[in-house]
């Protein structure tokens, strides 16, 4: 039997080499697939981060206008600033993570911890303005005392300070130690710096990670789900009450001072004069839809922001609390956190009319001015041909009557007042009078409805 062992070894040697080659091929394929996935993840994360930085800068520019000052906008401005710094720090980390210099490695780790700090601060800021909005909706008298701009700034500062104190130990988690790694291509050893846990963090690492997971993931998510559900319930209830009041108003009218206001007793409003000189009258329409105010839109907007926040933060919470070792799941969870930081501009634009108007005011006018300047440069560059063609088109489309210039004062004289001009002027005055009368009636109806 002992003599047969060398023979068996010779026979099994090719099979062992084939198995080793197969496992090496599988490892190479897995390594190639992992590197491709990491490359795609880095590209997508970079694009999303760049878009998020631009969107959050726009948010801060719009929300810091003087006419946008409110307690809710203070929280949203600080959230936009934290999201901007979080995405910028993550972009810088992606640039520095492949460097092998000791200083750059240390800087990349510091930048990553700064990104985590701003992300943690955003979590509690979102929780704070959700609670603040719940107080503003359900306790209007109490909100006049607590839901102010000064209190919002103080709460934001306290949130940032507490988040910094709780995140500060994570900056001392690793230290980079030099080591020699074999390069498979050149078959030579290279000097690299690998992170290793410090002695301080080895003793408290497990408990600290558990504490951070509870403080910045589990507890905020529970509070957000509870208060967001209460906000949704209050909005639905307020909508039903408003529809009920509008239905009663349309059916029975309003009792004011013992007089029942119906469609027959409401005074008629003069609208315009007909061609025969008689004034036409119309009655106000009582069957109107309930108006959604700006405050209700803000509440709905914050509900949407919180729902997306909970939805995109839950995978990261599951990954951290369960300590999963799945690399693909971890990358997907991190990408969802980055994607959530870019969505606030979309929600603000969809639900806030005031935000849209401010955006048009700040962005629309400069864009129009830029287009006009580009058009002038194009006309001056391509000579008189473009200008002559434009002038001929304008002259063919509209013929302007010549205006006589007054020689006494140098101003344009419009000529004598004709009966047609008098008629147009009286019609404009009548329309203005009817519009003001309708506004006064609407304001009186609203005051009666409130009483």
From TrEMBL:
Compartments (UniProt record): Membrane
Q: Which Pfam families match?
A: 7tm_1
Which keywords does this chain's UniProt record carry? Membrane, Signal, Transmembrane, Transmembrane helix
Primary location group: membrane
Kindly list any coiled-coil regions of this protein.
Answer: none
Q: Where is the signal peptide?
A: 1-18
Transmembrane intervals? 37-62, 74-95, 107-131, 152-172, 210-236, 298-317, 329-351
What positions does the domain G-protein coupled receptors family 1 profile occupy?
55-348
Assigned GO CC terms: membrane
Q: Which InterPro entries match?
A: GPCR-Ligand_Int, GPCR_Rhodpsn, GPCR_Rhodpsn_7TM
Protein's name according to its UniProt entry: G-protein coupled receptors family 1 profile domain-containing protein
Q: Identify the species of origin.
A: Cichlidogyrus casuarinus
| Taxonomic placement | Eukaryota, Metazoa, Spiralia, Lophotrochozoa, Platyhelminthes
């Amino acid at each position: 039997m002992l003599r047969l062992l060398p023979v068996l070894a010779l026979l099994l040697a090719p099979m062992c080499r084939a198995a080793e080659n197969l496992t090496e091929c599988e490892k190479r394929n897995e390594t190639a697939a992992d590197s491709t996935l990491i490359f795609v993840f880095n590209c997508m994360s970079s694009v999303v981060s760049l878009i998020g930085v631009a969107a959050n800068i726009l948010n801060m520019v719009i929300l810091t206008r003087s006419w946008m000052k409110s307690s809710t906008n203070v929280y949203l401005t600080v959230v936009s600033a934290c999201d901007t710094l979080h995405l910028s720090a993550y972009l810088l980390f992606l640039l520095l993570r492949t460097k092998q210099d000791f200083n750059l490695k240390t800087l990349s780790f510091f930048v990553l911890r700064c990104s985590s700090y701003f992300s943690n601060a955003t979590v509690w800021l979102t929780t704070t303005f959700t609670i603040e909005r719940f107080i503003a909706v359900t306790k209007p008298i109490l909100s006049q005392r607590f839901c102010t701009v000064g209190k919002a700034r103080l709460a934001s500062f306290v949130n940032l300070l507490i988040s910094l104190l709780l995140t500060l130990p994570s900056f001392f988690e690793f230290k980079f130690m030099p080591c020699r790694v074999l390069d498979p291509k050149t078959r030579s050893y290279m000097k690299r710096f690998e992170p290793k846990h410090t002695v301080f963090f080895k003793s408290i690492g497990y408990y600290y990670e558990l504490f951070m997971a509870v403080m910045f993931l589990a507890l905020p998510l529970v509070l957000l789900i509870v208060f967001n559900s209460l906000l949704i319930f209050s909005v639905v209830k307020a909508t039903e009450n408003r529809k009920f009041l509008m239905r009663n108003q349309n059916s029975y009218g309003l009792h004011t001072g013992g007089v029942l206001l119906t469609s027959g007793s409401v005074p008629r409003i003069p609208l315009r004069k007909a061609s025969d000189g008689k004034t036409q009258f119309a009655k106000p329409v009582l069957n109107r839809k309930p108006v959604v105010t700006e405050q209700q839109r803000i509440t709905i907007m914050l509900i949407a922001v919180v729902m997306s926040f909970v939805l995109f933060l839950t995978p990261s919470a599951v990954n951290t609390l369960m300590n999963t070792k799945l690399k693909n799941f971890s990358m997907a969870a991190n990408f969802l956190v980055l994607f959530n930081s870019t969505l606030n501009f979309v929600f603000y634009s969809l639900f806030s009319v005031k935000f849209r108007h401010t955006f048009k005011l700040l962005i629309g006018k400069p864009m129009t001015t830029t287009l006009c300047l580009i058009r002038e440069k194009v006309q001056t560059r391509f000579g008189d041909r473009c200008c002559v063609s434009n002038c001929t088109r304008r002259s063919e489309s509209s013929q302007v009557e010549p205006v006589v210039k007054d020689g006494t004062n140098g101003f344009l004289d419009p000529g004598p007042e004709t009966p047609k001009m008098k008629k147009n002027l009286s019609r404009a005055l009548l329309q203005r009078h009817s519009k003001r009368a309708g506004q006064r009636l609407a304001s009186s109806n609203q005051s009666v409805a409130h009483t």
